Amino acid sequence: MQIRGAIYHHGQLVFQNGFIGKKYLILLNTPDKKDPYLFVKTTSQKKNRPSTPGCIKKQSLFFIPGNKTFFKLDTWVQLHEIYEYRPKDIDTNKDISVEGSLDAKLIDDIVNCLFEAEEDNLITTHKNLLRPPLQDSLLKLKAKFSKEK
Fold first, then answer.
1. Which domain holds residue 19?
2. 123: CATH
3. In terms of C-beta distances under 8 Å and separation of at least 24 residues, what long-range contacts does 89-94 make, across chains too?
4. Residue 26 and residue 35: Cα distance in Å, rounded?
5. Could you tell me if 125 and 34 are in contact, meaning their C-beta atoms sit under 8 angstroms apart?
6. What is the pTM of this model?
7. Within-domain flag for 109
8. How many helices (H) and strands (E) in the chain?
């Protein structure tokens, strides 16, 4: 079992539009034995994406500059689609391998950006796996008190 922030390479990812390709995926949660693995995909294709490091809420992206982490190229984490896999589908799929990991602060920033950009589109199960109810309450309290200063 991997922990959140693990970077997987999927050689035959079926995109939500039906196309198949190679992609790096970032694990967003630390699943228990029966919990699904929740991933977001990444791209290094700039197209017309902004290169501002961090959360790009309006486009549901998180930008990671190249050579700052595992990713050698500038990388955009695409937050608008979550890929859910059962543990046995990860463990038995030869097209999926763990390639690296992100540090705890960066994965926290990515998950926080996901909530900022996509919270209304997240299903309750995913919200609870990504941010257990107690953690969410603590974050809201922290935000409230830091605004009052």
1. 6-147
2. 2.30.30.110
3. 90/8, 90/37
4. 16
5. no
6. 0.86
7. yes
8. 4, 7
